[in-house]
Write the structure tokens for this entry.
Amino acid sequence: MREKRFGFFGDGFFGSDFFNSFFEDFEKLSEQMEREMSDQRKFIMEDFDKRTGGQPLVYGFSLTIGPDGKPNLQQFGNAQKLSQPMLKTKGKQTLEREPLVEVHDAGKQLRVIAELPGVEEKSLKLKPSLHELELKVTDPERPFAKLVKLPAEVNPQKTRHSLKNGMLEVILEKK
């Protein structure tokens, strides 16, 4: 029988059964953690796909200085809306994106400009009211929607718009 040595670098310490067992247990624990992390990653991605309908997440912000000299921070995209219920469109769930929108006061008119990449005129729905403009795109591939608060009262019947190269311009006559 071999005599055990208890030196720091000898077989008695790093080469002992204690450390061999420790490293084997550590390796088993590491493998188990990898399996569990992989399972969690799959679960998260499946949940993400269910919640977004496979659509990409978009988030951004625009910071402008208003005519009064105060900063105006505007968020856009769909990432901040994940906690809200999703729409059902043709059997699959989609999440509306909020487009980047700017509102300009041009004297007797308000000019609203929105970025709507890839949107066609036939899928655009505009619904003006006295203090708001509801903008909605019905294309399930490009689900945009936004309720724009207007800084002044407008005449909903005197509204015109144009959509060119993904840029929407809406002119609303003030009351």
About this structure: The CA atoms of residues 86 and 95 lie 5 Å apart.
